[in-house]
From TrEMBL:
Segments forming domain Activator of Hsp90 ATPase homologue 1/2-like C-terminal: 23-159, 190-320
Gene3D superfamilies linked: 3.30.530.20
Signal peptide: none
InterPro entries for the chain: ASHA1/2-like_C (IPR013538), START-like_dom_sf (IPR023393)
SUPFAM superfamilies the UniProt entry points to: Bet v1-like
Family stated for the protein in its record: Belongs to the AHA1 family.
The protein's name: Uncharacterized protein YndB with AHSA1/START domain
Length: 328
């Protein structure tokens, strides 16, 4: 966790976040001023951000949008007040409509980003200044403290080379809280093809099979919001187990970057929310699946089935059968 402290001060009307990173100041500066990198961490898990082009000049303005798995949107904008590359910059951060107009009932805040060298790398001090105590309380009540902590926790993957961060580490499972799990896997192939492999039946049938000895007996795929998908599997030959399947509905699609679906085992009422995100760098794609469970008991029960091992077997097959076959 890079965040070392988040404090609020009702006297000075500030909220201050401090974070430490094992990377040079210039590298951390780049992460906060390059929109393609900001998009990977500025929003907390489940609310990824989309930034417009950033013009690092005083008076310039950039708008961003964060979108929840169910499609709710929160938009904001930065107006640059000062820039001292790579040591600091200052912005007015405002809640805005999709058209960029100030949002009634929500405060605009002055924010400073200071980057300091440390023996281990760099320290970020991010201070937000509020006009009054009500504005400070409103933002804290909206979950700004925990949201900021979770957002900054995603920076490790951004600051490292993607292959250095994830290659050879298999399918990784992180318990974010009692109901949220993040699963990551680097696959050696372009994002466009990895997206197709997740959504085209002919490709899905080649790799999404879990452990050896199983076959996919049904595959109904869609990328249309509101439509349903359905996948079923059964053991082959002497393989142990009973046939099963999953089904659900498509809630959000931003091809080839993001797809959000519900998921439930066929014949069962319990439902999860699966948020798939794909990020490509240097010919490899980081697959991230954020899963929201209804409760801790359901989370633990599903993880105990060996789900991660089955996913790893499938990802290995994806690289071997689909991605390798597609290379010239």
């Amino acid at each position: 966790m890079p965040v070392t402290d988040i404090t609020t001060d009702p006297q000075s009307l500030t909220m201050t976040l401090t974070a430490e990173f094992p990377a040079p100041v210039e590298r951390v500066w780049k992460a906060f001023t390059d929109p393609s990198q900001l998009e990977r961490f500025w929003g907390p898990p489940g609310w990824p951000a989309t930034f417009g082009d950033i013009d690092l000049t005083v008076g310039a303005r950039v708008q961003y949008r964060m979108t929840s798995p169910r499609g709710e949107r929160s938009s904001g904008s930065w107006e640059f007040l000062s820039i001292d590359e790579p040591r600091s910059f200052e912005v007015i951060d405002s809640f805005v409509t999709d058209d960029g107009e100030p949002l009634d009932g929500f405060p605009a805040m002055r924010m400073t980003f200071e980057f300091h060298e440390t023996p281990e790398g760099a320290r970020l001090v991010n201070t937000t200044y509020f006009d009054n105590a009500d504005a400070l309380e409103q933002v804290v009540a909206m979950g700004a403290i925990e949201g900021s902590r979770m957002a900054m926790a995603q920076l490790d993957a951004v600051l490292q080379d993607l292959r250095e961060y994830a290659e050879g580490k298999g399918t990784r499972v992180e318990l974010l809280d009692d109901t949220h799990v993040r699963i990551t896997r680097l696959v050696n192939g372009p994002r466009e093809l990895v997206w197709r492999a997740h959504h085209e039946p002919d490709l899905i049938r080649q790799w999404m099979l879990g452990p050896d000895g199983w076959e996919m007996t049904e595959c109904v795929a869609t990328t249309t919001v509101g439509e349903s998908y359905r996948n079923s599997w059964a053991p082959v030959g002497d393989a142990e187990g009973e046939p099963f399947g999953f089904e659900g509905e498509v809630l959000l699609v931003d091809a080839p970057r993001r797809a959000v679906t519900t998921e439930r085992m066929q014949g069962m009422p319990t439902e999860t929310l699966n948020d798939l995100n794909l990020y490509e760098e240097d010919g490899a794609t980081l697959v991230t699946v954020l899963i929201e469970y209804p409760d801790k008991e359901t989370r633990d029960m599903i993880l105990a089935t060996g789900m991660a091992d089955g996913m790893e077997s499938s990802f290995q097959r994806l690289e071997r059968e689909v991605l390798t076959a597609a290379r010239p």
